[in-house]
């Protein structure tokens, strides 16, 4: 689905682009996709000289669920002294939190295809455990205990 944009970026930016075809939910539940992306990134970083890439210029990127995976890979690799440091991460409408599906961005875009608010919650559950039976509870916010919601309010809030 992303081959054309990857080819465009590689050609126009004179870049080496590695696109990871990770396993998808619901057939492959978490952490399969994460493990695929992490494994591919580590392999690339360990063999970087083979690709003729400057180790100081490696960027991970992803959109939607891929944005979530790019962020998770970045966090994991941040503490790895045996690999070059990532230069940056590019996250395009990433799924980064599942605490509050009622934030302004969800409200403003709740009826904007293809990522309707209900679809985002449904896909998040598919990714995590393959069971979307609790989509309604996720959208209502009843999946997070009140004390935990207060704890994470510092990071996940409309402000």
From TrEMBL:
Tell me which Gene3D superfamilies the record gives. alpha/beta hydrolase (3.40.50.1820)
Q: Which UniProt keywords apply?
A: Hydrolase
From the Swiss-Prot or TrEMBL record, what is one GO molecular function term?
A: hydrolase activity
Q: Does the keyword Glycosyltransferase apply?
A: no
Domain Alpha/beta hydrolase fold-3 per the UniProt entry, residue ranges: 1-133
Q: Which InterPro entries match?
A: AB_hydrolase_3, AB_hydrolase_fold, GDXG_lipolytic_enzyme
Record-given protein name = ADCL3 protein
Question: From which source organism is this entry?
Answer: Psilopogon haemacephalus
Question: Which gene is transcribed and translated to give this protein?
Answer: Aadacl3
């Amino acid at each position: 689905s992303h081959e054309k944009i990857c080819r465009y970026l590689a050609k126009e930016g004179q870049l080496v682009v590695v696109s990871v075809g990770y396993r998808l939910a619901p057939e492959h539940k978490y952490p399969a996709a994460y493990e695929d992306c992490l494994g591919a990134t580590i392999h690339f970083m360990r063999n970087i000289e083979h690709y003729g890439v400057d180790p100081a210029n490696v960027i991970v990127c992803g959109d939607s669920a891929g944005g979530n995976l790019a962020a998770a890979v970045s966090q994991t690799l941040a503490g790895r002294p045996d690999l070059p440091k990532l230069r940056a991460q590019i996250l395009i409408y990433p799924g980064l939190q599942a605490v509050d599906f009622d934030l302004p961005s969800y409200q403003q875009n709740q009826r904007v295809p293809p990522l309707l608010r209900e679809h985002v919650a449904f896909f998040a559950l598919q990714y995590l455990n393959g069971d979307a039976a609790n989509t309604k509870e996720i959208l209502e916010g009843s999946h997070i205990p009140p004390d935990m919601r207060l704890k994470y309010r510092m990071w996940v809030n409309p402000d």
